[in-house]
Design brief:
The protein is α+β, with helices and mostly antiparallel strands and 571 residues long. It has a 4-stranded mixed beta sheet. It has a 3-stranded antiparallel beta sheet with strand order 3-11-8. The protein starts with 6 loop residues before the first helix and ends with a helix. It is built from 21 helices and 11 strands. Among the domains are: 64 residues, no CATH class; 167 residues, no CATH class. The longest helix is centred in the N-terminal third of the chain and has 27 residues. The chain binds protoporphyrin IX containing FE. GO terms for molecular function: flavonoid 3'-monooxygenase activity; heme binding; iron ion binding.
Length: 571
């Protein structure tokens, strides 16, 4: 199944759904009753005929096709009654994943809500996630249209928002082959390791006593620069200072501001996406911000491309394929086709949209989880000690962690899985959409429904996870309750990267980067909280935007714990 038709055609007005799907059944029943009344009472024959005709008309022409399995339309999944016009939007609160988790406790693991005029279904258990992302995955392989896809992501010409179909598949493959395949990952290993080393340098360069740093920012510099070098061949944050500020040249500063603004705007739930009547008003100013941001990103990318063209001069087609952008531009120059058809030649817009995706989907998702992992370890000194002991045994104290060490870090890998379980970067995954109506677990799912999978809630289901709120990496160790569970989309109780056809395209990069960066921080430093804070009272509150960030950024003081030679090597 594909959803290659433009989104506007594919997504009929949800208002139409409502009329046909909800009210017809009731009105039909009423009419039948009225007709029966007429027939059974002493009614004149003409009225009887009219009543029977109306009833027959409704029966034959106005009823919706019954669901193939039951012969009668299944009911919608249960859910709370919403407000007029806005539906359940006002009930979501700031932390939607938590609200939906609570609703699941009341209404069951499959919810039906309305966001404005859109049908929304929420999968709140591993079994439901499996139904949507494995059994019905083909039907849910598109993303719902929204202002971000339209105004920021080149009108859905990217990978994240693109309709499921040959162009999406081809674009995804370009990224997979050149960045995320085993071979590409290995070829770019030195880039990730080098950025991790620069992070250690920036943290260890000041003389003791070291100052307190904002851990998330330091890590973000590392993850963003590693990805930027792979994607556009340059770092975007200047190194040298732990906060990621410092003497950045104009281009780098612009890049950084754009990435940060994308995250901020992306986190706003745009009411206009769900209430068409409010779209033109843009009440939260989201569309205006997206358009402005898009222009800035586009100008910046055009500048980078122009610069490359100048350098390449006559040999424009020979642009080096050292980074993804170079490779994409060469494909554009060679007029390569993406999906076979004449109209499917790859364009510069495709290239820019893909680069945009990597930055938006691949930077903060990664750094956020590293910050959570360190916070959990600081909060659990016994687990931190065990992790450091393992790192000392496998890596030693005379050098930093390298990627080749990672497979041997059994305990540390369990720490990372446990962090993904409790603090998944995208707690509601990314939304999908029903291309066709279908029936799931005995409930009717209308065509065009938006699907949210509560990854966060599922990973806290006590039926699946004993003591779900406890940070307990041992559950993933050999002999533990979940020793064979991983995060790669096969175990529906733990799907921080999603699952099915649209599973995270950068899973391999993200997982590698998260594990390397966290292990490096824990191995190279001891961590002390600022005066007045104690590990067991560390604030672990969540602030939900698009990503599951910490409400209070983690601040901690690093103290080198390796032999001096391990740090000198970096000079
Ligand atoms: C810890 C890191 C990451 C997490 C937790 C994460 C999570 C996710 C999730 C939940 C989805 C939606 C999956 C679905 O619909 O089932 C997704 C999609 C995606 N991610 Fe990631 N991601 C991470 C890192 C990355 C990285 C490093 C990149 C690229 C550099 C990336 C690129 C993408 C793309 C392109 C998609 C859209 C895939 C599609 O629609 O076909 N992600 N990610």
């Amino acid at each position: 199944m594909t959803c290659g038709t433009p989104f506007t055609n594919l997504f009929p007005s949800p208002q139409q759904h409502k009329v046909t799907q909800c009210t017809v059944d009731h009105s039909m029943q009423q009419l039948q009753l009225v007709a029966m009344d007429f027939i059974t009472s002493s009614t004149p024959p003409l009225l009887t005929t009219i009543a029977i005709s109306i009833a027959l008309y409704y029966l034959l022409f106005r009823t919706k096709k019954p669901s193939p399995s039951s012969g009668k339309r299944a009911p919608l999944p249960p859910g709370p009654r919403g407000w007029p016009v806005l539906g359940n939007l006002p009930q979501l609160g700031g932390k939607t994943h938590q609200t939906l988790h609570e609703m699941t406790k009341t209404y069951g693991p499959l919810l039906h809500l309305r966001f404005g005029s859109s049908d929304v279904v929420v999968a709140g258990s591993a079994a439901m996630a499996e139904q949507f992302l494995r059994v019905h995955d083909a039907n849910f392989s598109c993303r719902p249209p929204n202002s971000g896809g339209e105004h920021m992501a080149y009108n859905y010409q990217d990978v994240v928002f693109a309709p499921y179909g040959p162009r999406w598949r081809a674009m995804r493959k370009v990224a997979a082959v050149n960045l995320f395949s085993g071979r590409a990952l290995e070829a770019l290993r030195h880039v990730r390791e080098h950025e991790a080393k620069l992070m250690v340098t920036s943290l260890s360069s000041s003389a003791p006593p070291m100052s307190v740093v904002k851990v998330g920012e330091v890590v973000n510099v590392c993850t963003t620069n590693a990805l930027a070098r792979a994607a556009v061949g340059r770092r975007v944050f200047a190194g040298g200072d732990a906060g990621g500020g410092g003497d950045e040249e104009g281009g780098a500063r612009e890049f950084k501001e754009i990435v940060l603004e994308v995250m901020r705007v992306g986190g706003v739930l745009n009411v206009g996406d769900f209430v068409p009547a409010l779209q033109w008003l843009d009440p939260q100013g989201v569309v205006a911000r997206l358009k402005k941001l898009h222009r800035r990103f586009d100008d910046m990318m055009n500048g980078i491309i122009e610069e490359r063209r100048k350098v390449a001069g006559d040999a424009a087609g020979e642009e080096e394929g050292k980074d993804l952008l170079g490779l994409l531009l060469k494909m554009v120059h060679d007029e390569q086709r993406l999906a076979g058809g004449e109209e499917d030649r790859i364009t510069e817009t495709d290239a820019k949209a893909l680069i945009l995706n990597l930055f938006v989907a691949g930077t903060d998702t990664t750094s956020t989880i590293v910050e959570w992992s360190l916070a959990e370890l600081i909060r659990h000194p016994d687990i931190l000690k065990q992790a450091q002991e393992e790192l000392d045994t496998v890596v030693g104290r005379s050098r930093l962690v390298s990627e080749s060490d990672l497979p041997r870090l059994t305990f540390f890998n369990a720490v990372i899985k446990e962090t993904f379980r409790l603090h998944p970067s995208t707690p509601l995954s990314l939304p999908r959409m029903a291309a066709e109506e279908c029936e799931v677990a005995g409930y009717h799912i209308p065509k065009g429904s938006e699907l949210l999978v509560n990854v966060w809630g599922i990973a806290r289901d006590p039926a699946l996870w004993p003591d779900p709120i406890e940070f307990r990496p041992a559950r993933f160790l050999p002999g533990g309750s979940h020793e064979d569970v991983d995060v790669k989309g096969g175990d529906f109780g733990l799907i921080p990267f999603g699952a099915g056809r649209r599973i995270c395209a950068g899973l391999s990069w993200g997982l590698r980067m998260v594990t390397l960066t966290s292990a490096t921080l824990v191995h190279a430093f001891d961590w002390e909280l600022p005066a007045g804070q104690t590990p067991n009272k560390l604030n672990m509150e969540e602030a939900f935007t698009l990503l599951l960030q910490r409400a209070v950024p983690l601040m901690a003081r690093p103290a080198p714990r390796l032999l001096p030679s391990a740090y000198e090597e970096l000079a």
